[in-house]
Amino acid sequence: MSNPLSIYNSLSRQKEVFEPLHPPFAGMYVCGPTVYSNAHLGHARPAITFDLLFRYLTHLGYQVRYVRNITDVGHLENDADEGEDKIVKTARLQNLEPMEVVQKYMNTFHRNMDQLNTLKPSIEPRASGHIIEQQELVRQLLRKGFAYEINGSVYFDVEKYNRKYKYGKLSGRILEDLMANTRELEGQDEKRNPFDFALWKKAAPGHLMKWPSDWSDGYPGWHLECSAMSIKYLGEVFDIHGGGMDLQFPHHECEIAQSTAALGKESVRYWVHNNMITINGQKMARSLGNFITLDQIFRGDHPLLEQAFSPMTVRFFILQAHYRSTLDFSNEALIAAGKGYQRLMKAVETLGNLKPSAASTVDIEDLSEKCALAMNDDLNTPILISHLFDGVKIINSVNDGTEKIDDKGIEALRKLFDDYVFKILGLRDETQDSKTDDLAEELMKIIIDLRGEARTRKDFTTSDRIRDELKKAGVTIKDTKDGVKWERG
RNA sequence: GGUCGGUUGGCCGAGUGGCUAGGCAUCGGUCUGCAAAACCGGGUACGGCGGUUCGAAUCCGCCACCGACCUCCA
Known about the structure:
The protein is an alpha/beta fold. Helices cover 45% and strands 15% of the residues. Helix 1 links the parallel strand 3 and strand 4. Helix 4 crosses helix 7 and helix 12 runs antiparallel to helix 13. The chain is elongated and about 90 Å long. The mean pLDDT is 91. It binds one RNA strand through helix 1, helix 6, helix 8, strand 12 and helix 11.
C-alpha cells in the first residue's frame, strides 16, 4: 500500500490516514434500518457507501468484520410518554404481530440490498436479540453513576457526564446552548434535564413489545442497542462507525456518551457519515413523506418517476457523487447515470474481445495509479469513475484501431476493470441478464439473416423496415464492421 | 434563534492558488446505403460585491440564497 487510504473522520473534521487498531483486522459498525416500512432511495445511500468501504478495505487486504444492525425494537414516535413505538404502531395499523412487521420489512430490505448488489454484513445483529446486553450496559451506567432510575425508567445523566467528559464533541454542540434552546415539554418531569435520554423505558399498559428487567417491564432506549452490540461484536474500542449524517445528533452523540461513560474510554476511532439524497433540494425521508421506495424505482411505479430505473443504475447514480455530498434525485440525473453505466458495461464487453498488438500506445499503469489515488482520497468514486471512462476511451480506441495495446496491457486493463468496476464499485453487468435467452438468440439470428439478405439485394426499404420494427419492439440493430449486433433497449 | 454545510456550464457532479475532471445533453466531422455505436473536434462555468496575490472557482471579509441538525429519520 504505497499511498495509504485516508478517510474523513467526522470527529476531527478532517481526513485521516486509516490505520486499524489490530491489523490486518478492521472492524466496522454501521447503523442499519428500523424495519417498519419499505426501504427507500435514502436507505440505498449508506448501504452502498459502506458496502463500498467494506469492499475497498477487503481489496486492500484487510480482514474486515462488518456489523450492521437491524433495529426491530422500534423507537418512540416522539419524546413524550404518550409517543408510540413505530413498529407497534405499524403492527396495530396493519393488524399484525410486531415481529411480523419486522420480518416483512426486513425481508424487503434484504431483497432490495441484494438487488443493489451490496455484500451481506459479517454480522447483522438485531436489537431484540440483545436485550440482555443492553440491560447489562444500563446496570453498568447505573453503577458508575451516569444514570438514574425513576418510575421504572432509567435515564442517562447528560449533565453529570458533561462534567467529566465533554458532551457534544461529535456534533459540535455545547451543553449550555442545548439547555438554552431546548423547549420545555409538558408532563416530562421524569427526566432531570430535557436533554437526558432514555436507557430503559417502562412500558405503558397494553404496550406490545416489552421485556422484564430490574426496573420494569419495558424496552431499551433509542441509542442503546448500537453501543451494546458494537461493543459485543467489535470490542470496547473499534475502528469505524458509520451511518447517515442525520444520525450524528442525537443518536451518535448519545452513543459516544453511553460508551464512554460505561467504559471510561472512547469506543470509536473513525466516525464516517454519508450525506443525504435530496429531492427538489430537500432531504428524502420517511418522516417528510417525500420518499420513493426502492421497489417503486425499480418498477417505475411512482408519480415522480418517468420510467423505471434498474438497481445498477441507482447504484451507479449514487457512486457518481462523493458520499459526503448531497445528491439530488431527478429523472434526468437517473437517465444520465443509466446511460453512463450502459456505456461502461459495453466497454467491458469490448475489453473481453480486444486484440493485442506487438506494441502499446497507452499507459495502463498510470491509469491504475490514478484509480488507486482516487479511492485512497476518502473514497472519491466520482474521480475514480472519471478515470474509468478514460479507460473506456482507451478500450474503444483500441477497438477502432486508433490506439494499440500489447498483451500485458490488455491483461492489466482487464484486471483494473475487474477490480474497480466489479469488486470495488460493486457493479454487476445486468445488461447480460437479458442475453441468456436462447430462444431470443435463435429468433434474432433468423431475423438478422433475413435482413442481411435484403441488404445484399440493396432492398433497403425492407432492411430498414425490419430495423425500425425491431426498434419499436425494444431491440437495436447495429451494423458494425465485425458483423451485425443487437441489443435490448 | 444556535451549530454546521452548500451555491460550478442545459442537467448531474468533481476539483481547492496557475496544469482538459467525468457522465448525460447539444453542435460539427470521420465511418456507414442510411442509421446506431465508436472515434476526433467545438461551445457553454465557477451566487454577488470587495480584499490578499504576479495570478483565485480555489484564500480572507461582507451580503444574498439554499439545505442539514437542534423531535423519529439513512
